[in-house]
Amino acid sequence: MSLGDVEVRSKSRQIFYSIILIALSVPVIVAFSMLVLSSFANQMVTNFDFSKVRFTFKNWQLLFQGRIAITGGLRENIFLYLINTAIVAFGVAIVTTLVGTLSGYAISRIRFRGRRFVLLMMLMLHALPGSILIVGVYFLYRLWMPTSLNALRYFSFFYVIVARAALEVPLSVWLMKGFFDLLPWEVEWSALVDGASRLKTWAKIMMPLIKPGVVAILIFGFLAGWQDIIYVRTFLIDKTLATFIESNLESEMAYMPLLAAAATLYLLPTIFFYISSQKLLFKVYAGGIRR
Amino acid sequence: MASIVLENITKKFGKVTALDGVNLQIDDGEFIVLLGPSGSGKTTLMYLIAGIYRPTSGRILFDGRDVTNLPPKERNVGLVFQNWALYPHMKVFDNIAFPLTLKKADKNTIQQRVHEVANMLRIEALLDRYPWQLSGGQQQRVAIARALVKQPQILLFDEPLSNLDALLRIGVRTELKRLQKDLKITSVYVTHDQAEALAIADRIAVINNGKLIQVGTPNEIYYNPRHTFVAGFVGNPPANLLNAEFDGTRLTIETKTFQAPAELLQRISGRRRIVLGFRPEKGSLLDHITENAVGIEVQVYEVESMGREQIVTVSIEQTMVKVLRPSEEKFQVGQRLFLCVDIKDLMLFDFDTNEALDVR
Ligand SMILES: Nc1ncnc2c1ncn2[C@@H]1O[C@H](COP(=O)(O)OP(=O)(O)OP(=O)(O)O)[C@@H](O)[C@H]1O
Ligand SMILES: [Mg+2]
Fold first, then answer.
1. CATH fold of A78-255+264-282, please?
2. What ipTM is given for this predicted complex?
3. Alpha-carbon distance values, B88 to A205, B35, B97, B290 (Å)
4. Are both B37 and B102 inside the same structural domain?
5. Tens of pLDDT, residues B91-150
6. pTM greater than 0.95 (yes/no)
7. In terms of Cα–Cα distance, which of B68, B65, B46 is closest to B56?
8. Residue B304 and residue B312: Cα distance in Å, rounded?
9. Mutate to test the pocket of ligand 1, among B40, B156, B161 (most ligand atoms within 8 A of CB)
């Protein structure tokens, strides 16, 4: 190994790290591949013996037709579940981002009394898993829930979004606080002195600089909403993909390859966001300011 | 292009009083240097003029117009921040062009103006880089360029050259001064570098603890300080200040006593304690006391060579005094000599108020 600049990692070390990372991800990759393969097969792929496995689109076809139990004539509206899942996911993403960005700004910029306390409490909250809090959250739900069933359906969407977002808020506030901490007042002021309005300063200066953070918490929020099952099952009247898959797993007439298709569909956004946002997340600007 | 009047400006941050009753008039096209120690309120004063802070009390006038409550956007002020505050996500060109794009200037004008200032500040080769790809001194010049490019009516520089090497510093400083005179832009300039202050200022405002101590031309500030703070702050090394007791005829510094010159009696006017001051270059070290001078016996404590000159530190018992002498004179540590200062070069201050005792 030769000595290079401190910043430059040696080649052999890079290869070493890569091997470890690949080794660690093999089980995950294999499991996901089997799931995806199963969704295109006539039976579950559970080992590497492919002799009885036949390739088919049938599972996907049945899934989109909503014909879940292949023997019974049950039909379910998979598109509705997809939309429900998306509503919850986008809802959580938007609430998390709004609250995270605004509170992060306030906590970073304003030295108000109890600021440290708020920060510590939020860390505590983040340390508690959502399932522990659910009793209290359910209590509030019962307290506020409307009596008419129609109103309750809308309310349950609203409630599940806000409650689930609340779990994501601590982390996003911390993250955004970090971003604003990196941005001194002077940069904002500089734009104002240069002749920008408050709105322009926000759009042209602040936003580009905190974009990686905003994108990150948008995605975290979206995935949290998309993947959630506990809150959705407890509060939401309607079904989402998660509860749909779960209830079918338990049913007696479950046809596993079809559920594999549903699960694959369910996984798509996660994979999509993971790949598409990687570059953006690391595009953090710094410099130009003396500290 | 505008005169500035600060009327009784006070700025408080909670319990901290950053500025305390500041009154200052800056003429149209004048170049004022703010000189003061760290934490004295220089940056705060800049921010008040720029409109970033609102004064707790007092008024700010530009050309007689009250701008106290005007937002920065409407003040047409250029400000070079102490920490530069470049926009990290913009290339140097866009950083400099930002004020012009906000004014919706057309592309050609922007190109031309940006290249003009970049050229003057010798950063034309850097226009295509991001701020983090620049050295401290280069970033600083980008910040200056951004303030200059919009040709504001008032320019505020908060220690704009602190990161440049000595040579570049003098070069840029001369350019700045020339540009300022050409465009007649009223400028306020903060610096810690006294030589710089004395070299470029039309007038210097010395500030300490949020109070303006003295405002005057470099000559007045240097040779006629109105306050011990100014005498003890300006100059390199600054003026020597010695506590002296007066018994009606004789002055005593520690245990050393000498006859008070008749010329000073009227200025002392019977005070029991005063502060005597003199500039290091006005003291001479001899084996006798010269005519028209006061002399006191001292011992050489240390000699530091500075090339053409040397700083000789001498002790009067406990008190250390610094004297600037030509390198040709030779001194030995421990040597006993007379420190002589011409009477006309003596500065007198009141012991309690620290204010100068006369107008010379
Ligand atoms: N936002 C603020 N909140 C509280 N106190 C402040 C604030 N800004 C400045 N101060 C205080 O006001 C005083 C003046 O600060 P200022 O930044 O104007 O000093 P300065 O002369 O620019 O110092 P330096 O030469 O170190 O830049 C200091 O005591 C400082 O602690
Ligand atoms: Mg300052």
1. MetI-like fold (1.10.3720)
2. 0.87
3. 9, 30, 14, 63
4. yes
5. 999 999 999 999 999 999 999 999 999 998 889 999 999 999 998 889 989 999 999 999
6. no
7. B68
8. 6
9. B40
